[in-house]
Amino acid sequence: MSISRVRARAMVAGVLFGVASVAWAQNAAVVNNKPISTQKVDEFVKALTAQGRPDTPELRSAVREELIARELFVQEAERKGLARNVEVQRQLDAARQEIMIRALIRDHLKTHPASDAEVQAEYDKVKKQGGEKEYKARHILVEKEDEAKKVIEDLKKGAKFEDLAKQSKDTGSAASGGDLDWNVPGTFVKPFADALASLQKGKMTEAPVQTQFGWHVIRLDDVRDVKAPPLDQVKPQIQQELERRKVQALQQELRAKAKIQ
Q1: Residue 127 is assigned to a structural domain of this protein
Q2: Which of 16, 104, 202, 255 lies at a 20 to 30 A Cα distance from 93?
Q3: Nearby residues of 168 by Cβ (< 8 Å), 6 or more positions away
Q4: Angle, alpha carbons 5-8-13 (nearest 5°)
Q5: How far is it, in rounded angstroms, from Cα 221 to Cα 235?
Q6: For residue 59, what are the domain limits?
Q7: What pLDDT is recorded for position 11?
């Protein structure tokens, strides 16, 4: 064999070895001729580090072994023909559908994001509508209706609410003259909330109010509109709601264009 041919073969072998080296570098492992890419390992590691795991050689080795184990299981399932199983096919179809839907929603929100202007407009709209009230009230809780009627009678005669509140069964508010601080009606059980919402500022209930806790005498000290939280505090919730509406609008648009029989 001539020297030129030997050199040519050596060059070809070198090229092939170089290609193989590049291919090997792109794979973390090859399982029965099926490659597992280093990119797949990187993606797996990235998901774990997002959960607080440090990116270490030990973690990458464990991920590689996990992906090898998974590939072995998948190959064995395919060898047994399980991919043709009706139930397996149903689950694969359902998983594919779910993945495609999520991908579509991500793509749609990427091209139709909830802008800062939209968030601000929605915040201003909700803030302007307002409507919810919060009440500053006091109450005296007693065991029996007759006791509550006696409290009302004494109050009408000039007794101080704060003094009579010391006999309240509600020990949490008794020490502060029956003060319940500021609350929206929904904080309380319905009979109490209804009675509170019907009172005028500075007035008390003319009849005892019964709840599962006993009998109440309630006085409304003040009313005010619920103060809206700052935009930064509620921005994530507003964005989520706007995105939900955008997805709903997409669904309605697709349904309107579709032929459904």
Answers
A1: no
A2: 255
A3: 139, 140, 141, 142, 174, 178
A4: 125
A5: 33
A6: 3-84
A7: 46
CA distance 79 to 180: 70
SS3 assignment for 129-170: HCCCEEEEEEEEEECCHHHHHHHHHHHHCCCCHHHHHHHCCC
Instruction: Read off the tokens for 29.
Output: 């492992």
178, 162 in Cβ contact below 8 A? yes
pTM beyond 0.90: the answer is no
- Asked if residues 28 and 37 have their Cβ atoms less than 8 Å apart, the reply is yes
Query: How far does Cα 31 stand from its chain's mean position?
Result: 40
CB atoms within 10 A of CB 139: 24
pLDDT exceeds 80 at position 114: yes
Taking alpha carbons only, the member of 161, 175, 176 closest to residue 216 is: 161
- Decide if pLDDT at 33 tops 70: yes
Domain annotation covers residue 11:
yes
pLDDT tens across 124-138, in order? 888 876 668 899 999
Domain contains 94: no
Packing angle between helix 231-257 and helix 116-129, nearest 10 degrees?
110
CB 164 within 8 A of CB 140: yes
- Shared domain for 142 and 219, answered yes or no, is yes
d(CA 224, CA 23): 71
CATH code assigned at 188:
3.10.50.40
Q: What is the DSSP letter of 220?
A: E
pLDDT digits (tens, 9 = 90+) for 2-15: 544 544 454 444 44
